[in-house]
Amino acid sequence: MPELSRGQQLALLQLADIADNSNGALEVLELAAESKSEGYVWVHLSLETKDYRTRNGLAFRDRERISLHVHPDFPFKKPDIYFKHTRFIGTPHVQWGSSICLYQSGETEYEPSDGMFGFFDRVEQWMRAAGKGELDPDDAPLHPPVAYTTSSTTFVVRADTPAGMADDGIWIGRADLRKVRGDRFDLVGWTKLDDWGDTDPGHPIAAAILFDKPLATEFPTKVNDLIELVENAGLSFGLLYSLLRLFSLVGSEEEPAYFVLGAPMRRKAAGEPLKPHLTVWEIGPDTLKTLRAMVRSKGEDEAARDELVKWMVKAGVRWCDVLEDRPEIVNRRDGGTLLAALSEKRVLLLGCGALGSAVAEMVLRSGAAKLHLVDYGIVKPGILVRQRYADSDIGSEKATALQAHLQAIGLECLVTVGKGNLANQALSRFDFKEWDLVIDATASASATHRIEEELKAQSLPIPMLSMSVSAAAENGSVLVKMPQYRGGPHHIARQAKLEALAKDAGHSLAKAFWPERETVTVFQPEPGCSAPTFIGSAADIDHHAAGLLNIGLSRIESLAPDAASLDLVAASWLRADDSKRRLSYTFKGYARHSEQRHGYAVLRSDVAALDMASELRRIARTRSDRVETGGLIFGEVDDAHQVIWVDSVSGPPPDSTATEMQFLCGTAGTKELNAFKSVASGKSSRFIGIWHTHPISRGRPSQDDLNAMLELLHFQEFPPRQVVMLIVGYAATRREENYYLYRRNEFVFIARHEEEDGGQQ
Amino acid sequence: MSSSRIGLALSGGGSRAIAFHLGCLRALHDRGILDKVAVLSGVSGGSVIAALYAYSDEPFEAFARRVEAALSRGMVWGIARETLLSFELPKIVVATILAGPAAVLARTLQLTGWLLSLVKLRPKWLVTIAEQILDFAPRFASFTTAFERHLVRCYFGDRRMDAVGRRELSVVINAAELRTETAFRYGSVESGCWRFGRLTDTPHVATAVAASAAFPAFLPALDHYLTFTKNGVETKHRVIVTDGGVYDNLGVSCMLPGRSSEFSTNVFPVDFIIACDAGQGMPSGARRPTFWMSRMLATVITIHRRTQTLTQSLLHRMAASGEIQGFLMPYLGQRDSALPVRPADLVSRDQVIDYPTNFNPMSKGNIEKLSKRGEQLTRCLVDTYAPEL
């Protein structure tokens, strides 16, 4: 009686329990110590199987002898189960002739707390299915055949098997290999025997035989069994022998030769056509030497022939480890994810810093076809705490160092490098036909301004995604510009600010990105005149880089082609003060007009158009559509980008004068209104001018209009520096917007000038 | 947000509400929002203007003039005319003669039953007889049916609830059913209450508005037998339908998300709610409810106010949680100081707040003031909080 572990005692107890309640269906026969591996015990059982038997399934006897191999660490290690005989060899889910394969994944399907009870439920299911012949039903993926590895060489199969090979019988040719290291080959191509040509392929090759029908579910361990198997599958011994002789001559004398054998026994999912299962047979240098002797002696070398026959009869088959990466049978582990959308895409990455270096690797792993890295900085020691560089990179250019790291990962993505300061030239250096996506990870205001300027002259026909983190890396923001959205990142950020402050002014995320007062102190890692950055760990950065990239990609997937979006995200470990951890804004671009005196671009919101339309309807309703009306314009004049933003307009203050001849804008309540607009927009949208209508004439400034400007710019207590005048011409009918920017210092002259010209309506 | 489904609810509050809502509708019309409204719900006074708008296809200005004319005329004389100058009066007399003594008799029997129950005796037949007497004599004619006749004659003719005149607009007219204490909604799609089911016949607009506006203190409830379909079964039930303000004076209950048509009628979830409220706002504290009548009235008003506050906070929460994109509530009794931007020429709360909630003729000045306040508040809220609608 062997000494039993606590777990094995439990196993016996549970087995006895099952046997006692089985009405004799299960009988525990014998307990035996395992001789080969220490601590294991064998439990031999007899199981009644006559009720499982049907015409279509395994030919069970009335009772079958089965054995359990119980690990001392049972129930945490699941037992193995065997038939006492090998009558069922070759049946799916019976390996080594007798081992019963109960679980597809023991890790998830076997439950230690259920112990033998759960295990025998499974045995019962297996026997029932085997009895009905349903162990490998057509609608389930095949259990791949087994070839027990005995060689230390590994093959990674990258290339799909040749198309249409199953149509014309057995496919014979060569597998093209790439030697990755001493004991690893990648199978990267297939060439049919007829297509070899005379030239040396210049890389290692293996013989390849792809059968047109399944072979055994368990591959032979002896060479003579293998020869019999392939003969039965339709490959004559003569042909096999020819191939053996041929390949003995191909490689170097010290190296083994390889035979890739394939048989249609795999599929990706239920219902799909069968694809070859591949095994690789390694033939050692000694055998090859014998074969070569046979070739050279034209079969006359007696010793060699004896040696060869001995090998064929006695030798074992050395099977190599085959790791599958063939697209035709392997499902990508990132299939269907957001990042998978980047597969085969060409990506431009601006900035290889904290976010950029993390994003670059994710893009690379997604299966992108091309990745271009732009950064002009160098690797400094301090950044190693959170950026993906090595100590050996210090002092070299970031983009080049990152390129080297990415190439070392070895995926099939062309990684290229561009240098140069993005603040001087950002996107205009690229031909956008060559690229599918821009990711801006610079988090740099000067780069943003440069892009904004460039996009005034040139449209960006591909989506752009721009990400950054807040000063303490607590919050992230990701902005997406779709191809037809008019305006760049600066534009989007401004629109987002207005919307966030209008809708979520109290939210901690809105406060973090647009603080009422600039309270953020600049962090300079190397005190003195160095570039400021933020405080944040590798964990903080990777979290944000991954999350922001996914959010951005999901936005690109769902946004309309003329839309843009901004998402603000709080890190999930922060204490939540607000119910929402993410604020999302989506917008359409502003309509574009031209200012007529200085050539500024005018960007007018849909809301401002609605405001005006609403006032036109009101005046038509209460007075007449021939009466002029107008009001105040709120927005921003951006002299740097030479842009006038028109965010909203008001109706006429109550003390305005409106007749068919003129509109004189009143002042009642305007101060309060301006104060409100300014506060509500975080000072981004304020009074910038006056609008009014010319119901049935064109929108040219009249003398009255110029006088009003003069009044506004020179004769009030705190005059603005410049004022926008919008005249809606032909307001009663087709409505055209005319914008004029008047500056205080130029106005007096112009007023006089136009006065001399006689002014015009 | 331009693709939002917008629901517009017009609260109760007699002619005061009608005038206030007219202004709100003007602001929404100017902004182009009114045309985009998908669900229009009205309660009591709000149902009058809602039905006037929905059941015609005239241009907005013509509609507005009709509302102003209706306000100047008031409804009271119309009801009096229908009562005195038609066959309604003898019917009302008969109904009251039958229903009055019947009610007295039935209540006496019920009281007797109650007294007997004190000595552990309670003959079941007594209760049954009392119910039968009450059911024998419904108030089939009353001032409310006269009101209904007035609405038929002057405004809605024999138009039925499904004959909406505006494109792609669903209409709900909210009333309350007093037997089952549930909402009774007349709608362009379906009418009924969840206990009895959907009405088999499509009711008249005039009936719906009369029921919705039958303010219980002044007008009796509409009391009649109607045929309902529930789970495929047709049944006749007696219903006693009164002012919708009893159940939900804002009229938003039909458009809140998360309701199931299994339990409610007229389920119209929307993304954005505009609820125009002609309520008075904060009470001045002048009330002294010392004796029974005033105490009961104050009690009803207090419960009513509480319901309304709860509805408001529900809307706030739904907007915060994202169940609705947002809501606007132009509110007659709004404290002017709490407005985001106060228009310089705002008609102040004090100028309009004391106007009573009845259907008497309204002066031109009051129509002007009430509607202008509605227009100003609505414009101010739209401009500030939902300019993109």
Automatic annotation (TrEMBL), chain A:
Gene3D superfamilies: Cytidine Deaminase, domain 2 (3.40.140.10), NAD(P)-binding Rossmann-like Domain (3.40.50.720). InterPro entries: JAB_dom_prok, Prok-E2_A, ThiF/MoeB/HesA, ThiF_NAD_FAD-bd, Ubiquitin-activating_enz, UBQ-conjugating_enzyme/RWD. It comes from the Bacteria. Keywords: Hydrolase, Metal-binding, Metalloprotease, Protease, Zinc. Signal peptide: none annotated. Residues 613-730 form the JAB domain. Residues 339-481 form the THIF-type NAD/FAD binding fold domain. Transmembrane segments: none annotated. This is Uncharacterized protein.
TrEMBL record, chain B:
A motif (DGA/G) lies at residues 243-245. Residues 9-256 form the PNPLA domain. A motif (GXSXG) lies at residues 42-46. The active site is at residues 44, 243. It holds the Pfam family Patatin. Keywords: Hydrolase, Lipid degradation, Lipid metabolism. InterPro entries: Acyl_Trfase/lysoPLipase (IPR016035), NTE (IPR050301), PNPLA_dom (IPR002641). It comes from the Bacteria. This is Patatin. It comes from Aromatoleum toluolicum.
